[in-house]
Amino acid sequence: MSEERKKIINELKESVELLNKNKVNEAEKILIRLSNYNELQADTFSYLGVCYIKKNNSKKAAEYLERSLKVNPNHEYSNLNLGLIYFSNKDYDLSLNFIQKTRKINKNNQMAIYHIGLINMALNNYLEAEKDFKELLEINSKDQNALLNLGIIYNKIKDFDKSISIYNQIIKINPNNIYAYNNLGLTYFDNLDFDKAIKYYEKCIELNKNFLVVYGNLGRAYSEKRKFKKALTNFKKAAEGNSKDYNNLFAIGKTYLSLGEYDKGLKYYEFRKFLNKTDNIEYIKKNFNSKEWNGEKIINKKILILSEQGFGDNIQFSRYLHQLNKNNKVIFLVNKKLNFLFRKSSFKIINNLNEINEHDYFQNLLTLPKIHYENYKSFLTNHNFIKNDKETDLKWNKKFEQIKKFKVGIFWQGNKNYYGDDKRSIPLIKFERIIKNVNISIISLQKGFGVDQIEANNFEKYLINLSDEIDNDQDAYKDSISILKNLDLLITSDSSIAHLAGTMNINTWLALCYNPDWRWYIENKTQIFYNTIKIFQQDAPGNWESVFDKINEELNIKLNN
Question: Domains along the chain?
Answer without folding.
Answer: 1-63 (no CATH), 74-141 (1.25.40.10), 280-380 (3.40.50), 390-560 (3.40.50.2000)
